[in-house]
Write a structure and sequence with these properties.
InterPro entries: DNA-bd_dom_sf, Methyl_CpG_DNA-bd, Znf_CW. The protein is α+β, with helices and mostly antiparallel strands. The chain has three helices and nine strands. Strands 1, 2, 3, 4, 5 and 9 form a six-stranded mixed sheet that branches. The structure holds zinc ion.
């Protein structure tokens, strides 16, 4: 009964200067950013646009007015709630180099997102070493560096995943011990 569950991604967990990504059925298909003024969420149309916002979100916070036909007076495009799973990116991550595509896939147990890149020739690269080797073998990508690729996994917001997958605080609760001092 959980089919169609969606996932959201956002570049900064701090209370301002956020933007976000939304995902469906294990991979990202909708992106969103949060207004730094009214805190409403706005849908971002493309991954490229999202990465552009995320790339400079500290220096240039996102506002509703950055989008055509939007202002802080217009109701939010979507709301942060558990009808979707949200994941949050660090701010100022590198933009994916032109021609490459970054993919994030959520594990079935909601524990982690796995990042990989698809090259302009359709090759799937899963590690920095694979990126380095590919760039070395393809000198036409001169100017693109390994540091333009980022495999870090966004933070999964625990309060927005299905309850059965939420991490239990068993380690904390286990500490409770009977007091039998007498
Ligand atoms: Zn706003």
């Amino acid at each position: 009964m959980t089919s169609g569950r969606k996932i959201l991604k956002s570049p900064s967990p701090s209370k301002s200067k956020r933007s976000s990504l939304m995902m469906t059925q294990g991979s990202v298909d909708v992106y969103a950013a949060q207004c730094n003024s009214c805190m409403k969420w706005r849908v971002i149309d493309t991954q490229e646009e999202f990465e552009e916002i995320r790339h400079k979100v500290i220096q240039e916070p996102f506002y509703c007015s950055n989008k055509p036909n939007r202002s802080c007076d217009v109701p939010a495009d979507l709301n942060y709630d558990s009808t979707r799973t949200w994941v949050i990116d660090k701010p100022n991550l590198p933009k994916t180099p032109k021609g490459f595509k970054k993919s994030l896939v959520l594990r079935k147990d909601y524990s982690k997102l796995d990042a990989y890149y698809i090259t302009p020739t359709g090759k799937k690269l899963r590690t920095r070493n694979e990126i380095a080797a590919y760039l070395r073998d393809n000198p036409q990508y001169e100017g693109i560096s390994v540091t333009d690729f980022d495999f870090s996994s966004p933070k999964i917001m625990q309060d927005t995943i299905p309850e059965i997958f939420q991490q239990k605080d068993s380690s904390i609760k286990k500490v409770k011990q009977p007091k039998n001092d007498l």
